[in-house]
Specification:
The chain contains 9 helices and 8 strands. The mean pLDDT is 95. The structure holds pyridoxal-5'-phosphate (PLP). Pyridoxal-5'-phosphate binds next to strand 8 and helix 9.
Length: 218
Amino acid sequence: MFERVSILRHQIEQACSKCDRSPTDVELLPVSKHQSVASIREAVALGFHSFGENYVQEGAAKQLELPEQKFNLIGPLQRNKVKAALLHFAEIQTVDRVDLASRLVRMAEELHAERGVWIQLDLWDELTKAGGCPESELSAIFSELAGSSWLKVRGFMAIPPPGQESAFAQLALLRNHWQQKMGLRLRLSMGMSNDFEAAIKAGGDQIRIGTALFGERQ
Ligand SMILES: *Cc1c(COP(=O)(O)O)cnc(C)c1O
């Protein structure tokens, strides 16, 4: 893993220098879905303390084994798993419906759970199965979340269709627009193993990397 992380860091530096960004402005979130707890421990030894997980149950089990580490939910969330998600994840990146937002608000209040939340966007309807909402839902979701003193909106998360790199620039424009409109700093989580360089170039703040860091999933 050391080798893969070194290569990755080098690639991130190169991508940043090409567009005059500082590598410290790009957060690398390791995605540990379908990776063992032993692999996560290896990553912890290399200095990583936040991990992305797609499934509530899998992430919760890992969080119980590694209570010092932070887990971020980056997979779809069902209403009936909201409580478990809030108990085991520090951040939830896949808020994409008003009813899910309102359930999160109520449950966070009940649990007194201070958490970061991200709104997942899908501007390309072909991707609906991966979750995400169109821009037209944003106002309603923002106003739902604004009613909570426990949940803090961190930004937008998206999984653009592979190969459609103009999507990253589209997301960056949308982020800038809503940042001004809401008077809120909004980060952008976009880019995975095969397209993170384009995401960095377009202004992404967080890249989510699975296979390029951990190797193939089990
Ligand atoms: C699996 C996954 C990743 C990581 O994908 P890799 O191609 O392995 O880097 C990132 N984001 C989401 C939402 C994922 O589901």
